[in-house]
């Protein structure tokens, strides 16, 4: 369980969105937190990789390794 205090302006925006879409405010709060956590975790992974000072991989090779080519 988590309690979050929002500024009146942010609370009003969230309430307005919830009313317009018919979804509960908690839906948007959970979605926003999950997205934020994903971004922060990706950022920390990127920083850790940069600190390892690994050699760069050319874009063409990355595309090939990831199977993103045509």
Give a written overview of the molecule.
By secondary structure, the chain is an all-alpha fold. Helices cover 69% and strands 0% of the residues. The protein has helices at 8-21, 25-51, 59-65. The longest helix has 27 residues, at 25-51. The N and C termini lie far apart (46 Å). The relative contact order is 0.06. The model has no long low-confidence stretch (mean pLDDT 94).
Proportion of β residues? under 5%
- The assigned structural class equals mainly alpha
**Quick one: how many beta strands?**
0
Order of helices and strands: HHH
- Which stretches are low in confidence, meaning pLDDT under 50 for 5 or more residues running? none
Main sheet specs: none
| Arithmetic mean pLDDT | 94
Helix content: 55-70%
Q: What's the Cα radius of gyration?
A: 20 Å
Helical region count?
A: 3
End-to-end span in angstroms? 46 Å
Backbone shape: elongated
Task: Briefly summarize what is shown.
With 70 residues, the protein is an all-alpha fold.
Q: Which characteristics define this entry?
A:
single chain; 70 residues; mainly alpha; elongated
